[in-house]
Amino acid sequence: MAKHQNESDLLSTYFANGTEVEISSDEDGFRGAWYDGTVMRPIFKKQRKNNEDDEGGDSKIRVLVEYKTLMADKKGKKPLKETMSLVQLRPKPPPERRRKFKVSEEVDANYNDGWWEGVVMEVLSDGRYSVFFRGTRDQLEFEESQIRTHREWANGEWKPSFEEGGEDEEKLVSPETKLNNKAAEEFSVGSLVEVSSDEEGFEGAWFAATVVKLFDNGNYLIEYKNLRNNDDTEFLQEETDRLHVRPPPPDIGPFKSFKVLEEVDALHNDGWWVGVISKVLKGQRYKVYFKANNEELEFKHADIRLHLDWINGKWVRASQALKL
Question: 215 near 239, Cβ under 8 Å?
């Protein structure tokens, strides 16, 4: 019953009845956004143990939530209610002080009733910001009050962390979260990098590549290490912009084991895909849940790494995930 007890602890600590939360959805048109909501009550679903390798109990907790901004009726008077898994919920972030944002900074923008991850492309003269959304390739303008610092919730911690009195982003990222932060706004020919794609079927993954050429417009010609062209005669080359390139994550040493609900990257289809440990199996194997496509796959320990985020030129992680 280890998994059930773990989920029960999370439920009582972060998702008790009446708690304000943010909710992610797997439905088309809503993926990638977080919506304000309230926990109504937990739902315990009994499951048969169909695999002797499972070390994770025989029940799964789901939570009934009520959205604050999404409605179930056309008149907009009846809030939408849905049953979600714990990996689709996170606590409501604490309020943060108003601050100025910089070009290339990762932010969340309040748009279409939810918070959507984007990148500041331009600081406009009237104090507004132009934000680019990778998932849709849209670029829209927002007031300062409509955007916030982008943060990830993992292992019971916000990253970058919140620190009282910190108006500057450097203060919001605690020293413990900084890892091998080599500036990488520009890469040279021959640099090893990881590249993301907006092409359908590849969203959300990072692929190993090498910089082949620098263009005058600031873009890069990269050659993938594992993806090949249509003829399978050579490795695929592609032009990409700086928003889709990052350095390889630092080597932070092996982990003996990962925990349920821990955020990880899993090696799948030649790329690293962000997911959440949903079940710990025997023989150092794990089931990983991928929120982007609502899929659960099994991986061996060697094909999983701790998830790190490249934010504002720094690698950050949940502080409790690793002691440096």
Answer: yes
pLDDT tens digits along 147-182: 999 988 877 788 877 763 334 443 333 333 344 444
Instruction: Write down the pTM of the prediction.
Output: 0.55
* Alpha-carbon gap, residue 133 to 121, rounded angstroms: 10
State how far the Cα of 152 lies from the Cα of 236, in Å rounded to an integer: 32
CB 276 within 8 A of CB 259: no
**Of all residues in the chain, what percent carry a pLDDT higher than 70?**
81
What dihedral do alpha carbons 269, 90, 198, 101 form, nearest 10°?
A: -140
Q: How far is CA 113 from CA 122, 144, 214, in A?
A: 23, 16, 39
CA 308 to chain centre: 9
- Could you tell me the two tokens for 124? 């406009």
Q: Which two tokens stand for residue 17?
A: 């009845």
